[in-house]
Amino acid sequence: MPLAQPLPLHDLPALYRSVATRYREGTRTGRHFVPSKLKRDPATAVVLRQAAATPGGFGHVVDLGCGRGQLSLALLLAGLAERVSGYDLDMVRVQDAQRAARGLPAEYAAADLSRPELPEGDTLLLMDVLFLLPEPAQHALLAAMAAAARQRLLIRTLDPDAGWRSAVGLWNERLHRTLRGQPPFGLRAMQLPRMQAVLAGLGFDSTVTPCWEGTPFPNVLLVATRRG
């Protein structure tokens, strides 16, 4: 698939509709969730623009904790990824992604991210997962991602030092965990300088971009690029 030119904002709604159309045969939740998530989550546009600004795009994208796969499929349909491999623990969401990916160079499967080795790819995505893990598991996952990424890592996480936004974000995550029947505590958002230092030790230089436009949350996107 040829790569698209960098995407101006007025083209994004058409792309989002194209992605959402692929979920019409999926679960009722997926049909409603995907178009809303694409439009309302500021990270969608930030990641797409990051890919559009990267020479050659993101190549083979490995989407860890992919959920229903709408972000990595958006990259693929925009011509900003050559191939997608997505993994998630929730098999219902994975099945939605599998249906949506029919006919595309994309595969989705159920997998546990705590395993020590991850599939290799040019770009590894990890969106809203890291802070859900215990701190030792976070370090192990970062090391596994660094070993598997040929070029870059994109990690969306919470900034614990963003003042009132951090308080709102942690409260929101605890609420959602409670509604899902999960323990509301145990969230461990790693401080961003600490995460960048860990990645630097693994051979990656990184930058952090806010991903909270239009929301009260402390979401940020960390982009780490392999040195050399």
UniProtKB/TrEMBL annotation:
The protein's UniProt keywords, in alphabetical order, are: Methyltransferase, Transferase
Would the keyword Oxidoreductase be found if you checked this record's keyword annotation?
no
Name any one GO molecular function.
methyltransferase activity
Pfam families, sorted: Methyltransf_25 (PF13649)
User: InterPro entries recorded for this chain?
Assistant: Methyltransf_25, SAM-dependent_MTases_sf
Entry's Gene Ontology BP terms: methylation
- Methyltransferase domain location: 61-150
Query: Any idea what this protein is called?
Result: Methyltransferase domain-containing protein
